[in-house]
Design a protein that fits this description.
Blueprint: H1 14-44, H2 51-83, H3 88-99, H4 104-111, H5 115-135
């Protein structure tokens, strides 16, 4: 049976896509931080002293910094939606899994619920997030 477009548990719902983007953005931000550190080291390297190399490094740093800024803003906006989830357990699940990027195993251990209970919490939390997301579009 196909998921309807309005279903909060289907991956087609924009709220579900936003949660996945939130999870992915945490990983991407860590990648950007690593790249920026590497570029900073390269910029200080004597072999990178030509004007063209410095321009390329500066452009890359600026692009990565801008991407980081955009991701930070988006993450903050989604954090405010998560904060509007009325159920504490669902909100904690969303924070742990999607905002802080914990694996499901880590979430299960940190919340002290059975695996089956965590997956039920996840279903309800995603539905709640989709409802809050839809109200705040």
């Amino acid at each position: 049976m196909p998921m309807s477009r309005s279903s909060c548990t289907g991956s087609a719902h924009p709220g579900v896509r936003k949660l996945q983007r939130l999870l992915n953005s945490r990983r991407r931000m860590k990648d950007i931080e690593s790249h920026l550190q590497r570029l900073e080291v390269e910029a200080q390297d004597e072999r990178s002293n030509t004007p063209e190399q410095q321009l390329n490094l500066n452009t890359a740093q600026n692009d990565l910094t801008e991407e980081f800024r955009i991701l930070s803003k988006e993450r903050y906006e989604l954090w405010t939606l998560i904060c509007n989830i009325p159920n504490d357990i669902e909100r904690t699940f969303l924070e742990n899994r999607y905002y802080f990027g914990m694996s499901m195993k880590e979430v299960i251990e940190s919340m002290n619920y059975s695996e089956a209970r965590i997956y039920a919490i996840q279903r309800n939390a995603v539905k709640s997030f989709c409802q809050v997301f839809s109200k705040n579009k």
